[in-house]
Amino acid sequence: MGTSDLHIPCSDLPKYTTLTPYPRSPITPTPSSLSERFRLDGRVAVVTGASGQLGHAIARGLADLGASLALVDVAPDKATILASELGAEHRAFEADLTNKSQVQDLAKQIGDHFRRVDILVNNAGIGVFTPSEDRTEAEFASVVDINLGGTFHCIDAFRELLADGGGSIVNIASVYGVVSPDPRVYGDSGRNSSEIYGATKAGVVQLSKYFAVHFAPLGIRVNSVSPGGVFANQAQEFVDAYVNRTPMARMAAAADMQGAVAYLASDAASYVTGHNLVVDGGFSAW
Ligand SMILES: NC(=O)c1ccc[n+]([C@@H]2O[C@H](COP(=O)([O-])OP(=O)(O)OC[C@H]3O[C@@H](n4cnc5c(N)ncnc54)[C@H](O)[C@@H]3O)[C@@H](O)[C@H]2O)c1
Fold it and tell me: pTM of the predicted model, to two decimals?
């Protein structure tokens, strides 16, 4: 092939105007006040990894704004306790999100119980902390299976329910999907945030952009939240190094993620899709 074969005259390129337009909803001036647009009354939110630290906080935040919750975890004990503490309109469900048929069954159970789903927060995820030169295939696969596979299975299984009234998907990624971990933070501890963790979280950001574009015709918005390191009684040496590296001079609290997730889930973000909201105290700003 000669170089001239690579040249496509502009006149031969497809015109956007020749593409079939999406069935757009008309621009409707939002009838409610801003504080009302943050409310989630009458909405059903699925939160995965709801037995964990961030899942708990995210779920509490959404319930506080009026949502009814389907709290999902492979180890649902803590999610079950949270559901009963929050009230009778909330319920816990058990599922291994790496298992596609379990996730399909989960969507059916939740659909049958709540009759609708408005919000899906894909929060379940795992990391490995061993050095990359010691990475086993099993470790590598398990991080991919939950962080990317689980997120994908849930998006796939819940898309129909979410499309019913226009929905919002919020995928929990990580600051380490945006920048590399700084090895100086981890020192000689032997603990490091791994290459595969960051790679899957970058994948979650991209998955969110892909589905933001491809679900726009369904009225479903898709965004991600990328938390910085959350304080969970880590070793003092690590905490000091992390804080020293962070412009806001503290680690995140789980509650710091509540506002970001609730905003993207709500009508306050009605024109926001394909966005990655970094909540890291400035960690990735320099
Ligand atoms: N904690 C942090 O510093 C931090 C920072 C950035 C991003 N994140 C991300 O936030 C999310 C929540 O993290 P966390 O710190 O609350 O973790 P966590 O370990 O406290 O909670 C994770 C939950 O996911 C559940 N889970 C794991 N595998 C599952 C599976 N196959 N099916 C269903 N549930 C499964 C676990 O049982 C657990 O309850 C993760 O995606 C994590 O990568 C956390």
Answer: 0.92
